[in-house]
């Protein structure tokens, strides 16, 4: 990638980081009445847009940067909240960005986002079950009681809303970036190394989740 392209990419990624943080800061909507502390914010729409433009690893980088900014500014959940934020976003955006790069069409994007919705929901159910009792002091029985009426529908609704919004804004946003000469090159083509890294990250998250489940089942944590 030449200097102009690299500069353009860094500029757009910085802009996307800023937009994602503003989205967290200004839009927080409770969408599950039984658990008003679970609030929807649309930052994943911005992060996934970056993933569609630059690939899954760029989306991961944006997610990590925004989550760290949240940690040092507005977060009340500390390092655990940081981990949960990154896990949630990565589980949603990486499969979608990966499949979109392999199958560069709206149908490819949609299938990837559906897979991301399901993966995010599963990962968040497991990690809420594993981690919430540790840092909030809830018994696991209380967390289990929240899974069906709150945690599962929240994550399905959140990822579903993000899917619809991404489908609506991606093309207009890319068109605007091109017209403003910020995006002066085609979205990155398939890059086996980067895409493999993205999928390796997802596999790593799944393996760590499995390990945590085994530890819980054996009363280690």
Task: Give the secondary structure arrangement, pairings included.
Elements: H1 3-26, E1 29-30, E2 39-40, H2 43-54, H3 56-73, H4 78-102, H5 106-136, H6 140-179, H7 192-217
Antiparallel strand pairs: 1-2
Helix pairs in contact: 1-2, 1-3, 2-3, 2-4, 2-6, 3-4, 4-5, 4-7, 5-6, 5-7
What does this structure look like?
The protein is an all-alpha fold and 221 residues long. The chain is 80% helix and 2% strand. The protein has helices at residues 3-26, 43-54, 56-73, 78-102, 106-136, 140-179, 192-217; strands spanning 29-30, 39-40. A hairpin with an 8-residue loop joins strand 1 (29-30) and strand 2. Helix 1 (3-26) packs across helix 3 (56-73). Residues 189-196 have low confidence and may be disordered.
Keywords summarizing the entry:
mainly alpha, Arp2/3 complex 21 kDa subunit ARPC3, two-stranded antiparallel ribbon, 7 helices, 221 residues, 80% helix
